[in-house]
Specification:
The chain is built from six helices and nine strands, in the order βαββαββαββαββαα. It is an alpha+beta fold. The chain folds into two domains: 82 residues, Alpha-Beta Plaits (2-Layer Sandwich); 68 residues, Alpha-Beta Plaits (2-Layer Sandwich). Strand 2 and strand 3 form a beta hairpin. The protein is elongated and about 60 Å long.
Amino acid sequence: MATMKHTLIMLVQDRPGVLNRVTSMIRRRNFNIDSITVGHSVTPGFSRMVISVDGATTAVEQVRKQMDKIVEVVKITDITNENIISRELALIKVESTPSTSQEIIRIAADVFRANIVDLTPDSIVIEISGDEDKVNSLIELLRGFGLVELARTGRIAITRGELGPLQKHEQEIRKKPKTQKDKKSKTAKK
């Protein structure tokens, strides 16, 4: 079976242990996570996860269905074949000398539209954002100068258009009327 990189997006309840349950599910299915990013979503109390895995479509679909059974997972969607915008951020520290610093800056800023965020006599820190190929290309070009340190965020992605699959679900959550239990817990806190 041919494998390909899949991008899964998830809306999860913001609770301790959710990330562990999600990654354990992927590990049990013998998948390697290429990248995972987690951050706040538009809806308070919920987080958004973007997971990049390499695998056969049928196997990834099985994992998606299994993760959908995790209580804290509100919604999970494979957006691999959707019209998406994906980006990655990297901070790259490169060795430099007075004779190489101008060339490194030219490559980073002029060719790749990256930002120089720190400059010392012996190193330059470059910030780049873009698709994975752009980030990889800059890293490969800078390798010849000597990479000192590298930090990457991993893929973040969002679908193009007005409402993506998670946003529709988040709107439903925000529109739900408060239950009697929710009302009691709020009055008890006052």
